[in-house]
Automatic annotation (TrEMBL):
It is found in: Nucleus, Nucleolus. This is PWP2 small subunit processome component. Gene3D superfamilies: YVTN repeat-like/Quinoprotein amine dehydrogenase. InterPro entries: PWP2, Quinoprotein_ADH-like_sf, SSU_processome_Utp12, WD40/YVTN_repeat-like_dom_sf, WD40_PAC1, WD40_repeat_CS, WD40_repeat_dom_sf, WD40_rpt. It comes from Lepisosteus oculatus (Spotted gar). Keywords: Nucleus, Repeat, WD repeat. GO terms for cellular component: nucleolus. Residues 757-861 form the Small-subunit processome Utp12 domain. The keyword Nucleus applies.
């Protein structure tokens, strides 16, 4: 169970390329992210979250086809390899290969067929799930016509015909069935690539949109109900009648009189307003019920038009980058936009002119990450100079800091949980406040320098950062922002910094093969200097501060006792990295791996294991005591990234070498600068290299995260269904647990439930314990089950509505067993932090609601006081005639009704 971490979610990127799709209910949107797809739920305010499916293609996804019922999805990558995925079970149902790059996939409205376009042809398949067959993809018919690659597809509402657009500026209408008066029809009239072609609702009338910003309106002289089915071959052969012993064939059979061929006529041609010659139309979508046409351009501008009159509704800009994909929900109220340049995903409600979802990932490589002290948030920093804060429960980014002007090298969280500090190559270290979302401190050095690493002490009062060029460590005060000290002594660039979690001791590593321990309380003196055999890349302390792990350039991980400056162990990990071979390299992967090393380390929450990663697709987890490799996690299967395969593909080898190093335009191999790992940005074919830049364990110990070339990958124990019984016996069964529960033997029932380790059964037993019996059960509970029960309460508290019930469990456990738990605080710390995370999450939600209720009650009391003064004045006026004013009575009734209404509203909200 300890190493059963499974892929849980992908953050840091929300859109890469491909087409967007709305789910059937319109509450979520499906977005391709590399070789995976993410589902963003944005309608339900109580459970907004993003989820990345645990299925992956071999290369980046280029198109996604969604079935009309929303249960199936076809994912096609760059090479034409397809996956049939069930969106209900999140499982892969079938693998298929189209052997060529696919441009578009579209299901028919009735769900019986789907069309795939590749090269200059369209292939129609029987949709899977309608018939029981061994092969889920059964080819029905192939359609030829265009002379160049096809670009887009659309179906008629009754699934009788479909239209295909092409790069040869033509549009082709095909019959999905065999029609007598329609085999195919070709339409021209454009001078550029067809971007979108759309049928009118329940009609053969067409709209075609080209890349140069032209819209053609086509009118058909035939309705859908006028299409005549062609008789089958068997019917023609058997259509013979016997007359007086002789046979008369069907050659003399006359065609129906109304079998006129389908004709199209262009009814109009319109042009979009373009701001420049390079502002091409890149994406288009049409909603048939509302006649709404949405078009996106390379400048980030999008237009909304009403067809067929071509009336402009809106013309807005979402960014300055190319809009690559546009999608409209089934109802027609929401529009989704995808911008690959900045990695943006936007959902816009055009009627209210407001954003429903606005997410943007890091459009460049992620460099660093850190968990908040309670594990609710993750902060990431990237080469794009942005610092983003992500919610681990929802998967959404809720704040982005853009003050840095260069790459962010490291981020850190203060112990308070509300202050983020980041270091950058722009020569500044900035502190951000999560209460007001602002940059409240900026730390700089006397001379301009590039900061490569960062560390905060346990109190959050001391900020330190290392320099790449001056070989110095700068120390500032968080309270005053003043530079306290400049620590000099290293003879090479500073590679990493880390504070001892228990003491005020700073460890700095450098390329000069040393690790220096600085005493922050004793005049910034060097306490110890650890000598190593190679350049030091990274170091990290264990949670109790009694051990220091150091990774060096020779692939070694050494463990030190920082108190006595003695090495306690070492792990040789150069053979565990398993580097892939770069397409530009001349040497094999085995030879290249000899010079590789780990660049990031992270202790597990219990301190028994350590995670290590580097320039490889593998993350290794080692047992520190035994110094052996426990498990390797392969973070990516995406062959669109460089250094993924160990051997070169012989099919790509030519007499000039590998096709990857041959520039098709010039016939020469592009030169790579020495030391480059990100690829040459000016190159036509840019292929990023797979690597892991940072690893962090969650404080709760239930998950860990890694920043890689693909994004922020989260691996969790909660997503794995693992049966792990504890001290199981033959007499421990669900029936015996329920029997003890019926006898009101609650403590025995809890022990048996934990021995069986079934979550639903344990929850049933706990909820059956009366509230007044909780303290008695906790007092008599054996010590070995205290940690298990506390961990179960912490996880149940996250999603349960019985807050007071489970908080009572937690309070009783800590009250009766707090002293014993304190003696083994090192091992119990992840459970305590998990409990703290759950309580903090509910505290933040309820505190806002209670404040809102409190202000409403104060307003009601102030209003009643004001009306009481008016009533007294009214009574004094009417004292002479002895009658009470009607207005005072009415005010009193309104006052009581307002207060009662507010109190009932507060009660209902708190109950929910």
């Amino acid at each position: 169970m300890k190493f059963a971490y499974k892929f849980s979610n992908l953050l840091g990127t929300v859109y890469r390329q491909g087409n967007l799709n709305f789910c059937k209910d319109g509450n979520s949107v499906i977005s391709p992210v590399g070789n995976r797809i993410s589902i963003f739920d944005f309608k339900n305010k109580n459970s907004n979250r993003s989820e990345t499916l645990p299925v992956a293609t071999t290369k980046n996804i280029t198109c996604v086809g969604l079935s009309p019922d929303g249960n199936l999805a076809i994912l096609v990558d760059e090479d034409g390899a397809a996956l049939l995925v069930s969106l209900v079970t999140r499982e892969v149902l079938h693998h298929f290969h189209f052997h060529k790059p696919v441009h578009c996939v579209s299901f028919s409205p009735d769900g019986r067929k789907f069309v795939v376009t590749k090269d200059n042809m369209a292939l129609m398949y029987h949709a899977p799930g309608k018939r029981r067959e061994f092969n889920a993809f059964v080819l029905d018919k192939s359609y030829y016509g265009p002379y160049d690659e096809t670009t887009c597809i659309d179906w008629t509402d009754d699934s009788k015909c479909f239209v295909v657009g092409s790069k040869d500026m033509s549009t082709w209408v095909f019959g999905a069935e065999r029609w007598e008066n329609l085999v195919y029809y070709s339409l021209g009239g454009h001078k550029d690539v067809i971007v979108g072609c759309f049928f009118e609702a329940y009609s053969l009338d067409l709209y075609t949109v080209s890349q140069d910003g032209a819209l053609c309106v086509w009118e058909c002289d035939t309705g859908l109900e006028e299409l005549l089915p062609r008789p089958s071959k068997k019917a023609v052969q058997v259509d013979e009648e016997e007359v007086d012993g002789e046979f008369q064939g069907s050659a003399d059979r006359k065609k129906p009189e109304n079998s006129k061929c389908v004709r199209y006529k262009r009814r109009g041609k319109y042009f979009f307003n373009k701001e420049g010659d390079f502002n091409n139309l890149t994406a288009a979508a049409f909603h048939k019920k509302t006649h709404l046409l949405v078009t996106g351009f390379t400048s980030g501008i999008f237009h909304l038009h009403e067809l067929p009159e071509f009336n402009l509704i809106h013309s807005l800009s979402i960014s300055d980058q190319r809009i690559l994909s546009v999608s409209i929900s089934d109802i027609g109220d929401l529009i989704a936009f995808g911008c690959a340049g900045l990695g943006q995903l936007l959902v816009w409600e055009w009627q209210s002119e407001s954003y429903v979802l606005k997410q943007q990932g890091h459009f460049n490589n992620l460099v660093s990450l850190v968990y908040s002290p309670d594990g609710q948030y993750i902060v990431t920093g990237g080469d794009d100079g942005k610092v983003k804060v992500w919610n681990t429960n929802s998967g959404f980014c809720f704040v982005t800091f853009t003050e840095h002007t260069s790459s962010v090298t490291e981020v850190a969280f203060a112990s308070s949980g509300f202050v983020i500090v980041s270091a950058s190559l722009d020569g500044t270290v900035r502190a951000f406040d999560l209460h007001r979302y602002r940059n409240f401190r900026t730390f700089t050095s006397p001379r301009p320098t590039q900061f490569s690493c960062l560390a905060l002490d346990s109190s959050g009062e001391i900020v330190s950062s290392g320099s790449q060029d001056s070989f110095e460590v700068f120390v500032w005060s968080m309270q005053t922002g003043r530079l306290l000290e400049v620590l000099a002594g290293h003879e090479g660039p500073i590679s990493s910094l880390c504070f001892n979690p228990v003491q005020s001791i700073l460890a700095s590593t450098s390329w000069d093969k040393t690790v220096k321990l600085w005493d922050m309380c004793d005049s910034w003196k060097t306490k110890e200097t650890l000598q190593l055999t190679s350049d030091v890349l990274v170091a990290t302390y264990r949670a109790d501060g009694k051990e220091l792990a150091v990774a060096t350039l020779d692939g070694e991980i050494t463990f030190w006792d920082p108190q006595n400056a003695v090495q306690t162990g070492s792990i040789s990990g150069k053979h565990d990295l398993q580097m892939g071979r770069n397409e530009m390299e001349k040497i094999t992967a085995k030879q290249a791996a000899k010079g590789k090393s780990f660049t990031t380390l992270c202790y597990s929450a219990d301190g028994l294991s350590i995670l290590a990663g580097g320039q490889s697709k593998f993350v290794c987890i080692y047992n520190i005591k035994e110094q052996v490799l426990m498990k390797k996690f392969e973070i990516s299967l995406n062959l669109s990234l460089d250094a993924m395969e160990e051997y070169l593909d012989r099919r790509t080898m030519t007499e000039l070498g590998s096709l990857a190093v041959v520039d098709e335009a010039e016939g020469e191999a592009p030169l790579r600068l020495p030391g480059m790992r990100k690829g040459e940005m000016s190159s036509r074919h840019f292929k990023p290299e797979i690597r892991v830049s940072c690893l962090r364990f969650s404080p709760t110990g239930r998950s860990w995260a890694a920043t890689s070339t693909e994004g922020l990958l989260i691996y969790s124990l909660d997503s794995a269904m693992v049966f792990d019984p504890f001290d199981l016996d033959i007499d421990v069964t669900p029936s015996s647990v329920r029997q003890q529960l019926s006898l009101h033997s609650y403590m025995t029932a809890i022990v048996l439930a934990f021995r069986l380790n079934e979550r639903k059964l344990t929850l049933e037993v706990l909820e059956a314990v009366p509230h007044n019996e909780i303290s008695v059960v906790c007092n008599s509970l054996p010590g070995v089950y205290v940690e298990k029960l506390m961990h179960f309460v912490a996880t149940a508290l996250e999603n349960s509505r019985h807050l007071q019930f489970f908080l009572t469990w937690a309070e009783c456990l800590l009250s009766f067993h707090g002293q014993n738990l304190k003696t083994r605080s090192g091992s119990i710390l992840p459970v305590i932090q998990s409990l703290q995370r759950s309580i903090q999450m509910h505290f933040e939600d309820l505190s806002k609601l209670c404040d809102w209720n409190q202000y409403n009650i104060k307003y009601a009391l102030a209003l009643s006081k004001q009306r009481g003064i008016k009533r007294l004045a009214s009574e004094s006026i009417n004292e002479d005639d002895g009658s009470e004013g009607l207005e005072s009575v009415r005010d009193q009734s309104f006052e009581e009704a307002d207060i009662v209404h507010l109190m009932l509203k507060n009660y209902v909200v708190l109950e929910n």
